[in-house]
Design a protein that fits this description.
GO molecular function, one term (chain B): ATP binding
Helix content of chain B: 25-40%
Number of helices of chain B: 18
Shape of chain B: globular
CATH architecture of the domain at 7-156 and 163-271 and 428-433 and 458-498 in chain B: Alpha-Beta Complex
CATH superfamily of the domain at 7-156 and 163-271 and 428-433 and 458-498 in chain B: Amidase signature (AS) domain
Order of helices and strands of chain A: HHHEE
InterPro entries (chain B): Amidase (IPR000120), Amidase_dom (IPR023631), AS_sf (IPR036928), GatA (IPR004412)
Oligomer: heterodimer
Helix content of chain A: 25-40%
Structural class of chain B: alpha/beta
Strand order of the largest sheet of chain B: 1-3-2-4-6-5-10-11-9-7-8
Order of helices and strands of chain B: HHEHEHEHHEHEEHEHEHHHHEHHHEEHH
Low-confidence stretches of chain B: 513-525
Strand content of chain A: under 5%
Number of helices of chain A: 3
Organism (chain B): Eolophus roseicapilla
Largest interface: A-B, 57 and 69 residues
Number of strands of chain A: 2
Distance between the termini of chain A: 16 Å
Domain Amidase (chain B): 27-147, 168-488
Radius of gyration of chain A: 22 Å
Strand content of chain B: 5-15%
Keywords (chain B): ATP-binding, Ligase, Mitochondrion, Nucleotide-binding, Protein biosynthesis, Transferase
Amino acid sequence: QKVTVDVLDHLERLALVDFRDSEGVERLQKAIQFADQLHEVNTDGVEPMDSVLEDRCLYLREDDVTEGNCTKELLKNAREKVEEYFVAPPGNIPLPKLEERETYLQSS
Amino acid sequence: LKARRLCFQVSAALKEGHVTPTELCQRCLALIKSTKFLNAYITVAEETALKQAEESEKRYRTGQPLGVLDGIPIAVKDNFSTAGIETTCASEMLKGYIPPYSATVVQKLLDQGAVLLGKTNLDEFAMGSGSTDGVFGPVRNPWSYSRQYKEKLVPESHPEGEDSNWVITGGSSGGSAAAVSSFTCFAALGSDTGGSTRNPAAHCGVVGLKPTYGLISRHGLIPLVNSMDVPGILTRCVDDAAVVLGSLAGHDPKDSTTIQDNFKPFELPNLTDVSKLSIGIPKEYHAPGLSSEILALWSKAADLFKNAGANVIEVSLPHTHYSIVCYHVLCTAEVASNMARFDGLEYGHRSDMNKSTESMYAATRREGFNDVVRGRILSGNYFLLKQNYENYFVKAQKVRRLIANDFMKVFRSGVDILLTPTTLSDAIPYIEFIKEDNRTRSAQDDILTQAANMAGLPAISVPTALSERGLPVGLQFIGRSFQEKQLLTVAKWFENQVKFPMIELEEVKRHDHGVFQHHKSASFS
């Protein structure tokens, strides 16, 4: 079963990363094919494993402020900033629809 | 410099004043320059290294070195944050990024007086098994230029000439492996998510240790797969690995996935009696594609233990065949999540696109990530879609438990250590390697190493012998959780038995002023 253009478009929006070309789409197809081998394994009654350290308690430290006051340092790595703010382009504007976007998927 | 090989020996030389930290640092920096063609380093921190060497020298002069690592030149893979030193992960996304803090493991080494020479090259964001897919180009295996490899080369009909025969380092910590292998540093940090420390260690003829998950802090290691990543240690001998492990292991309040047990650094005993050891040989590791050469070496190693009185038995890890598939799903899923932080707002590359946050993020990521990274992000997102979550992600998590259980069963049956090959073959030429894409290569090359990451177990690759082509082959030992002392003790015994030959490099010979240690004693193959 090939992945539909709708799903590919959906993935580009979720990931905010593009397929770039037919190779990219092929790559995903192959990845899915590869992953499908998992279904050969019988996992009845098996619990999913999140972490190999599942039998231990995570360390929780005291809720004390131990570091901070490094605004200058942190802002050094940002390209766009104003005073102590990171500057972002306007939000609440959805990514253009497939037909209006510059994406390889348009042609497929 | 006879003492160039071991941390311990050079440490003694520093203490006795036979060599100073500054001399040592300068020699390493000069060697880095003359081995530039290896492309092992992305950033060489010459000024800060010399300063650190100076500080170390002061301490030695007043008879107060901080420890064995004081003044020892080291290198760090470029996916560890180093305060004030560019950290790129070999990606456009982080070119020019200067972290405001150092990874815990880096800080620990610096606190012990180690001299940080620079950041080593890798596959972009540690995704790959060749160290060929980073924006700074591929790393060349130093053994490509060794007498041992060159004399075995059949005059090829390559029109490109001599230079096309160079072989890969393996990956993704290829730069670190090459750096240690070519004597430009005494130890290097790598990372290991699916074998990224052990694979290049095997190909470059150095020791590559993957510690138990939770033993060493990941704070500052730019994450790939949070549930499997560990910092890896690359050295020229097992004793050195134990020393570095000793300075790095232990609980870190900044990494809540480090265990809280007290860790005591240890010195490795010189094991003489292996009769109480039970060595397991997992039959599934006789994987398709395993070269007959490596199969023979593996068999020889098993016999070595048997003849020395150890109990060597065949065991089964039945889900081995599925571990690479499982890894593929879990890895891409965690990658999809971890790479989401790169959006251009707070650090790293930022696109000029300014229409909206969404389009800026998309353009930034379009410009910053290579095909491999983008491919894994998209695959990961696919497996995490609501309609796929149960069938792929959760399914993979269940298979992960089965894989981990396989190991538990074997260790519970009395086996102490597992012995397996590390790689399917010796290092292949770069022009061969690039004929297949990254995902295919990774799937092939990780097959013997990544199950240990699935189960969180400690594993080490020890250089064993040279192949017919004159290239290093390593064998892998996998141990029980948090039993690094036992693992390294056995590895050290094995290392002493096989007496792996030293690499003979022109550049190194020149720097040595004629004092070059040859290992004439019987070697393993």
